[in-house]
């Protein structure tokens, strides 16, 4: 009854192939965009920006990136943290070396540099797959963190090895540095997340995405029907690392403002993003956002409920929070191994039939 | 989107904390994760001293102090969340007990006008009040610690360290890297060779580092460790039979939780400290009557009197004294963070005042000013007695070598001023 398709006619192939073929879905999408761009920027404060929206959008970009590699192209990667570090250190070097150039260009370039590094570490994927590839990307993770710790050039020879984001403006508003207002912080992340999600959606349903999925489903069969595994795998690594690099650049420059490679981009970050796409749903754009929301918002929510409302001791709350998040992950994976995106798809199926299920 | 939305709505309802009327001193603590064992002691000491002031004196100048606690797990992202969640509640001063979080907060506190007090940690050049207006790190910082340790070794060796080999085992993070420049400067001045041995966080596994030490045979080992890294290092040192009396930790590597797991083998291990240790101070009688006996001690009071508890309490003492000074200067009990900053800049804690508080000879004399936010930097050494299971102080408060440290602070703060576009103010 809610998802009524009756009367929703498609008169062209273009209409038929659109991302949201059901009218209600499309309206929902436009409504979410209208709220995100038109309402939230006027209501947002520092707490909402720094604790909720900015990390959510940044992790969603990282999850999109990893989802392209793991969910669409089937190449397991544990190097996300290391690639985010490449993005962060590239943007730091660029913004300190060329302060007069727009920060947006720096962030995009940081993504580009990360894409190159990603391709380099993606080379082993041409020979190995599965667990062995996971170990190779794990090596990338540890190597990159070690590199940024070891070579002082990357952190401009500062005494402590910390990198600090100086203030940079966009259209007259500070977007990095301490004076950044909450709406500016939120909007720059939102624009990047929106554009990248749009790019990801359209890449994955085009030729490139179909090649990736063919490789994922069976690489020998894909090769026989004419998919070149070299270009397909390396392009997946490049696009994925581009996304992850932008997420790392935003994480450092807009969200944290100062970072230390071992703490901010350690192996935990790789696992966090991997959990996001597993929870959210492999091979799904919506799943990337849902997974990021689950992993970023749930701990904050639980903390506010347990400590803020119930007045529990902070350490007890922190431990319970870990247990609840862990239990929910296990629960979701048992009940719906394909993640939140699949759960959402099932809900939609049910809603279309409601209230007269067969 | 449904899940996201419900979560967001709920988070919003919970996040809207009411503004508090009293003096608010948030405690960004950590009681979980690889540093939780150490963080718990510190947070308890910090909470208990303010509880004591509230219970015994009705707060400071008649204003009660609220200490809302927020768990950071030593994680910078959670630290940001805690800072943002508490900053609009009238918070006056932050003491995050994490160098990483401190680095993040330094630019923010300048904009939000909050005091950042980082005793014995954080960014060392925060001592320069001309550049770091809102940051205070009295009584001592990492570079002071390194210098005092070398001074002690000089005394041990009759004033000559030439030809000696000293190894620095450090937490491979901003915290651990801080002393390297000072130690390099001191190595050049006194003619010893310095080898730097990083340990990646969290540091449970240090076999290769200590194998290297066993091979190089340094005369002394200095450690900048924290959390689980400390006990692992002391255990490994015991395993390779490194003489404990030649092993000196910074103040963050000198608590009971670090040495107790190693047992008798840790006997003789030394560590720096900038506060007194043990329970031999009159204040503990008051803490017992007003805090522990009525059942108001933080987390049950099981850590009262430990080395890190004392340090947490000492941080609270300094903040309380700064609040008192600020109240006197401002002429009002309900002070703002700006007024507290004035209070810190005019802070003076004399030995007589410490005795009044009930902590005679507990810390060095502190006298801050507009350009000196770090005090004298004096520290002393403590040694572990494994049979009595307690620390004993083995030196008096010693001045660090400002000849080496002062130019480094000037250089580092100038670099920060340039990077952040700050014009140093006149003092």
TrEMBL record, chain A:
Domain of life: Bacteria
TM helices/strands, residue ranges: 27-44, 50-69, 101-123, 130-148, 183-200, 236-259, 271-296, 316-335
Secretion signal span: none
Keyword Ribosomal protein: no
Alphabetical UniProt keywords: Cell membrane, Membrane, Transmembrane, Transmembrane helix
Entries under InterPro entries matching the protein: ABC_transp_permease (IPR001851), LivM-like (IPR043428)
Membrane topology of this protein: Multi-pass membrane protein
Main localization, broad class: membrane
Compartments where found: Cell membrane
Name of the protein in its database record: Branched-chain amino acid ABC transporter permease
Phylogenetic classification of the source organism: Bacteria, Pseudomonadati, Pseudomonadota, Alphaproteobacteria, Rhodobacterales
UniProtKB/TrEMBL annotation, chain B:
Signal sequence region: 1-21
One Pfam family here: Peripla_BP_6
Source organism, top-level taxon: Bacteria
Key words of the record: Signal
Domain (Leucine-binding protein) ranges: 25-386
Gene3D superfamilies: 3.40.50.2300
Keyword Signal: yes
Family classification: Belongs to the leucine-binding protein family.
Protein's recorded name: ABC transporter substrate-binding protein
Organism encoding this protein: Paracoccus spongiarum
